[in-house]
Design brief:
Helices cover about 35% and strands about 15% of the residues. The protein has about 375 residues and is α/β, with parallel strands linked by helices.
């Protein structure tokens, strides 16, 4: 089945005979047993709920996985993921990570005895593998520096060394990139972002390649309890129905805006994988079918950055990404504020960096908004 069709029709309906086009919201905490030792397949919503199950089946199909598990937030999914590991275990991770993931690894996971080696490229990774190494965790493109990592190259190393490969696919979604087909074992999503697509709910998902990992993660999810509610499952399903058309339009606008930003005197660098000048352009073309709608760019000084954030009108100065509304973020003070300053600056995340999530507004309107915010006037 074509991806766009699958987004709309999801999985086979096995529990509703009404003909309802919308997936029912099974707002129930518990389910009655038909008899002693018998079950309808649903006992308690922390373990499983029909609405959440439909979402999980749909996302697993979109990613080409065997199973998907839905959580209350993306960070809840990441936290459950880390329960696969034990004190003394070691992970190789992307050097540039979403600030919340960095906070989890640096504070919670480190407290629990797990160690990490952050690296920039697959070429650096083989020498970092130790007997304690259990997994490699990467984002691609990374947040916020938009680095592109060769998933197949990392997957070959993971397979050779018997490591689990985990890929955060939030920025591109399965519409543009399918990490499992490139050798990943687990895919992580903040469903809050493009899958939901409307900036109105929180969700996280883990998608697995094989049943062994799925069984472990389902046990962890049931035990720790951060499951996605039936209503939020419904909202993510509703968002997925338009995923393909939203991403196509958002990417089209992002390319136009990235080209415009690259020509501006106030802008010193643009990080967007769809620009041929981007260092990961060829890798992106090889492993993904699109470049997404996230743009990071540097302006000449902090005053310009602050002025831009204060003056935008159509674009909203707000956390998050991936929704129909365009959002601009100041990573230094928002998504990556908890990273120690020296470490943050080493990664290039300074007061001149802005991150733009391109929404569904007119690209021309967004460019006009950026122009008046950067310069105080609309440039031709």
């Amino acid at each position: 089945m074509d991806f766009q069709t699958l987004c709309i029709h999801g999985c086979k309906n096995t529990y509703d005979s009404t003909g309802a086009l919308g997936v029912p919201i099974f707002q129930s905490a518990t389910f009655a047993h038909p008899g002693v030792g018998e079950s309808t397949g649903y006992d308690y919503s922390r373990s499983q709920n029909p609405t959440r199950e439909y979402l999980e089946c749909t996302v697993a199909a979109l990613e080409g996985g065997t199973d998907a598990i839905a959580f209350s937030t993306g960070m809840a999914a990441a936290s459950a993921l880390m329960e696969l590991f034990s004190p003394g275990d070691h992970l190789i991770i992307s050097d540039d990570l979403y600030g919340g993931t960095h906070r989890l690894f640096s504070n919670i996971s480190a407290k629990n005895g797990i160690t990490f080696t952050p690296l920039d490229t697959p070429e650096q990774m083989p020498s970092a593998v130790t007997p304690a190494t259990k997994a490699i965790f990467i984002e691609t493109p990374t947040n916020p520096m938009m680095q592109v990592i060769d998933i197949e190259a990392v997957s070959r190393l993971a397979a050779e060394r018997g490591l689990i490969l985990i890929v955060d696919n939030t920025f591109l979604t399965p519409y543009f990139q399918k990490p499992l087909s490139l050798g990943a074992d687990i895919v992580l999503h903040s469903g809050t972002k493009y899958l939901g697509g409307h900036n109105d709910t929180l969700a996280g998902l883990l998608v697995t390649k094989d049943s062994g990992l799925s069984e472990k993660l389902r046990f962890i999810a049931k035990t720790t309890g951060a499951c996605l509610s039936p209503f939020d499952s419904f909202l993510i399903l509703r968002g997925i129905k338009t995923l393909a058309v939203r991403l196509e339009r958002q990417q089209e606008s992002a390319m136009k805006i990235a080209d415009w930003l690259a020509a501006q005197d106030a802008v010193t660098a643009v990080r967007y994988p769809g620009l041929k000048s981007h260092h990961g352009y060829e890798i992106s073309r090889r492993q993904a079918s699109g470049f997404g709608a996230m743009i990071s760019f540097f302006v000449k000084d902090e005053k310009i950055a602050e002025r831009t954030l204060e003056r935008v009108k159509v674009i909203q100065y707000a956390e998050s990404l991936g929704g129909v509304e365009s959002l601009i973020t100041y990573p230094m003070l928002q998504t990556h504020a908890d990273i120690p300053e020296a470490e943050r600056l080493k990664k290039g995340i300074d007061g001149k960096l802005l991150r733009l999530s391109v929404g569904l507004e007119s690209a021309d309107d967004l460019i006009c908004d950026l122009s008046q915010a950067l310069y105080g006037e609309v440039l031709a």
